[in-house]
Design a protein that fits this description.
It contains twelve helices and 17 strands. It is of the alpha/beta class. Helix 5 links the parallel strand 7 and strand 8. The structure holds 2-succinylbenzoate and magnesium ion.
Length: 387
């Protein structure tokens, strides 16, 4: 069956008048992580944040490209994204007038792939448009929530006791959902024990593509633990095997890596590859695709939540704005700044209230100030692109 077209809010994301984009700044900033983050594909000790600043009409907007340094989560890296932006995306948008977000997205459409690179620019554009209009991003895109519910994603730990200590720590801070990273050899017994110690919490697992259909029997054992979802059990680019697996599982599969845009989301839902969608604005190519996927999930009644990529405060603030849309019905991986960083690049930092929610800012644009002197002190590379 063909999906009915869904009215999206992409058309509303327009500056007061067509904009000539004057400059795009690319900045790499290294932020140490408070604790190492271990997942099935590797370990991170610091985050190299790729920040973008777009200038036009005497204003500027901030975005973040969520690519990592190595192609372990997706094929994109900080290096490939910087190359694609510098050589292809920036020349397509700097100089000529841009009418709105749809117009910006249209200029990127001919370039295949590289959604994280495209998203970095879209985020900066949307912040810029919101600031020019004097509106918060959440309002501009049609967000309806004043606060968003948040959960926490916990990396693989050396022992169950160490993991449980982290679970208790974040439950005490108010986080409403706990997500455990799993991999072959660190899965069923650990999840069983955490569930035994916390019979009532909202609990999910994320495999980051570490299994194959040959592991279906093992994955079915997770059905015993009343999990909210199993996130991305199979390959990063697979839909077919996820659909086969979902038919034999009681627990909902949630796709993350596999959903790189609206088309993949539509095909995942039509084939039954997942019952829940993890939205990462960077992974899907920015606000234009994210708003379309949001419309699709709303129309089909599919639960949606906002994922995270260990973003600096800039990407984090965009996530908060996005999660204010009504289709985001499950707690997101939107931690407070202090979950990852000693000091964030925005002021004030993102804070999780004791009820496990984060306030959606009401000030124009991102609604946070960027701490430019701090950014400058941590900058590893900087370049300014002009038409
Ligand atoms: O799969 O959701 C994921 C972090 C890095 C790469 C992939 C993922 C994650 C997380 C953490 O789970 C999300 C966050 O808190 O930013
Ligand atoms: Mg994930």
């Amino acid at each position: 069956m063909l999906a009915k077209p869904v009215a999206s809010n992409v058309a509303r994301v327009a500056p007061p008048a067509p904009l000539r984009l004057d400059a795009l700044e690319l900045r790499l900033v290294r932020l140490p992580l408070l604790e190492p983050f271990v997942v099935s594909f590797g370990r991170m000790d610091s985050r190299l944040a790729f920040l973008l600043r777009l200038e036009a009409g005497g204003q500027s907007g901030w975005g973040e490209c969520v690519a990592f340094e190595s192609p372990l989560y997706s094929y994109e890296t900080v290096g490939t994204a910087r190359h694609v932006i510098r050589e292809h995306l920036a020349p397509a948008i700097l100089g000529p007038e841009v009418k709105d977000l749809a117009d910006l997205a249209a200029r990127f459409r001919a370039f295949r792939g590289h959604p994280m690179a495209k998203a970095g620019i879209e985020l900066a554009f949307v912040d810029l448009v919101a600031r020019l209009r004097g509106e918060p991003i959440a309002g501009l895109i049609g967000g309806t929530r004043a606060r968003v519910e948040v959960g926490v994603s916990l990396g693989i730990q050396p022992t169950v006791d160490a993991l449980d200590e982290r679970v208790n720590h974040f439950l005490a801070l108010g986080y409403r959902r706990i997500k455990l990273k799993i991999k072959p050899g660190a899965d069923v017994p650990i999840v069983e024990e955490i569930r035994r110690r916390h019979p009532r919490i909202l609990l999910s697992v994320d495999a980051n593509a570490a299994y194959t259909l040959a592991d279906a029997a093992l994955l079915r054992r997770l059905d015993a633990f009343d999990l909210l979802m199993i996130e991305q059990p199979l390959a990063h680019d697979d839909l077919l095997d996820h659909a086969k697996l979902q038919q034999t599982l009681r627990t909902a599969i949630c796709l993350d890596e596999s959903i790189t845009g609206h088309e993949q989301a539509r095909q995942a839902l039509e084939t039954g590859a997942c019952r829940i969608v993890n939205m990462k604005i960077g992974r899907v190519g920015g606000y234009s695709e994210a708003l379309r996927i949001h419309g699709l999930c709303l129309e089909r009644g599919v639960p949606l939540w906002c994922g995270g990529m260990l973003e600096s405060g800039i990407g984090r603030a965009h996530n908060v704005a996005l999660a204010s849309l009504s289709g985001f019905t499950l707690p997101g991986d939107i931690s407070g700044s202090g979950r990852y960083f000693e000091r964030d690049v925005i002021l004030p930092p993102v804070e999780v209230a004791p009820d496990g929610t984060v306030a959606v800012p009401t000030a124009p644009g991102l609604g946070f100030d960027v701490d430019v002197p701090f950014l400058e002190s941590r900058t590893e590379s900087f370049e300014r692109l002009r038409p």
